[in-house]
Automatic annotation (TrEMBL):
Requisite cofactors: Mg(2+)
Annotated family: Belongs to the FPP/GGPP synthase family.
Name this polypeptide is given: Solanesyl diphosphate synthase
NCBIfam families cross-referenced by the UniProt entry: prenyl_cyano (TIGR02749)
Keywords on record: Isoprene biosynthesis, Magnesium, Metal-binding, Transferase
CDD domains attached to this UniProt entry: Trans_IPPS_HT (cd00685)
Organism of origin: Chenopodium quinoa (Quinoa)
UniProt keyword Cytoplasm present: no
Amino acid sequence: MMSMSCQNVDFGRMRFNFIACCCSSNASSDRLFAKSNNVKGSGSKKNIRKGYGARKLFCFRSGSPKCRVYSTKTPETLLNGISDDPLPVLNVRKESSDPISIANLFEVVADDLLTLNKNLQAWIEFNDMSIVRKIHQDENPLLMSAAEQIFSAGGKRMRPALVFLVSRATSQLAGLKEITVKHRRLAEIIEMIHTASLIHDDVIDESNLRRGKETVHQRYGTRVAVLAGDFMFAQSSWYLANLENLEVIKLISQVIKDFASGEIKQASSLFDCDVQLEDYLIKSYYKTASLLAASTKGSAIFSEVDRNVCENMYEYGRNLGLSFQIVDDILDFTQSAEQLGKPAGADLAKGNLTAPVIFALEKEPKLREIIESEFSETGSLDEAIELVKSCGGIERARELALEKADIALQSLQCLPDSAFRVALERMVLYNLERID
């Protein structure tokens, strides 16, 4: 049986109803929408040309049998599980012109995130005391001070939030009344691994600011920063081993290896105008999507749902992660230095060729000349940025981000209708809104 979901979505001044087909068919999809609340039947649906836009976020499989459309009037009933009656699903946006906020997005797991923050702070305090007692007094306490600095700098806690959302969504599927201690510990491990990777990334990128505060290496020096990152990787690995689930241990351990592989792959292809889109996607998987994919699949494994659901959660995390990275790479060209917190085109200036550049290189030979000269002439970086924009690189990268977003959404069709599944879907929309 297939189901179809109708969602009221606001984009700027216009509200659209999105139709999401829950079909798993591999047939090509037609994306469609209708203004306001005028979706009455197939006669009111309008096919949209192939091109980026929020209006084509969800797919409709043409030629499908008549699908069931659920009401979206009472989202509070989503928390009550599945009934025999048509359920309200996929209220992707509230009826407001305001953009999706992280606070609203993660509201259904707010208590889980609060517990996570308390546990991470307790971990810092415990280890700080332990290090002071056991190791040299002068330098090693800086390791925990460094970790505390980046934890206290804030952040969206997106990765542990995804762990909690998938954990709760799949727990419902498995008939569990509550998520387990292993689910919670997994969320903490994922955040520790992510934080460790940020510390090392800032060293590699020579970044002075992170979330508006001094980076660890800027404040404490490169040696302490590297050791702090290593320490957090080691601690997360120890906690991971204590989960005593070999499949999850292998899954998360691979992520740490992928981080290194991604950095090596990036460093080996700087200013290489022959880099292929496939290479870019592999690197993006290593650096960004691998952790998200492992997080979401690991959550499903601990819910003890069937293998197909676990693999779908992996594909959700993988494609959401790729879409996020592509959007970040677009913003490097479309936002100002003030918005980015770093100079616009910073990746390009370092020779890191991302999706917009790879697409633009297919059309503009002059761009290759400028990049291969490593921006030796004054104003050449600005010229390259303008060529990326004028040659359609941004638009084609948007298409790619949307393609990955579509796959992520389709991967959620195995989950029961719930507020947690809605939040997972809205996460995809939140990402695309950043370039809308």
